[in-house]
Specification:
Radius of gyration: 15 Å
Number of strands: 5
CATH class: Alpha Beta
Strand order of the largest sheet: 1-5-4-3-2
Number of domains: 1
Largest sheet: 5 strands, mixed
Distance between the termini: 51 Å
Shape: globular
Helix content: 25-40%
Number of helices: 4
């Protein structure tokens, strides 16, 4: 069994950067959930994890994730990542703009028995919207 930091690195390389998405079946707990995602209401486990990556890939087919930093404490791994890509699919009801984007996020992951079981993510959604040309007016 691998340590949590190795597992999360393998998941990003395999699932998010598309080397081997099936690896999620081995490294993601059957009860996996991500907080604050609509999709998490319908799916759990490796299928949810793969669906999240697939949905993101549909919007940004050339997406590339770089894990910038990790901090590990027992069964918890915090990481800072950057995703680059081109907006080529509908996002929040916004049609494709073909604009290049760079999205940064901080994520906290909890592991159970060497498998990823829970994720919390905070990403720069406002910056992402601005990069694809959405103007946000104050209320």
């Amino acid at each position: 069994m691998s340590d949590p930091e190795t597992v999360i690195t393998r998941l990003y390389d395999a699932v998010w950067n598309r080397a081997d998405p099936v690896l999620a079946d081995e490294l993601v707990h059957e009860e996996y959930l991500i907080h604050d995602r609509e999709l998490a209401e319908q799916l759990r486990g490796p299928e949810l994890y793969k669906a999240l990556a697939s949905h993101t890939e549909a919007v940004f087919p050339d997406m590339e994730f770089t894990v910038e930093e990790t901090i590990t404490a027992g069964e918890m791994v915090a990481l800072r990542w950057t995703m680059t890509g081109t907006h080529q699919g509908e996002l929040f009801g916004i049609p494709p703009t073909d604009q290049p984007i760079e999205l940064s996020a901080i994520e906290i992951n909890r592991f159970d028995g060497g498998k990823l079981i829970e994720t919390w993510t905070q990403s720069d959604q406002l910056g992402l919207l601005q990069q694809i040309g959405v103007s946000i007016e104050p209320p």
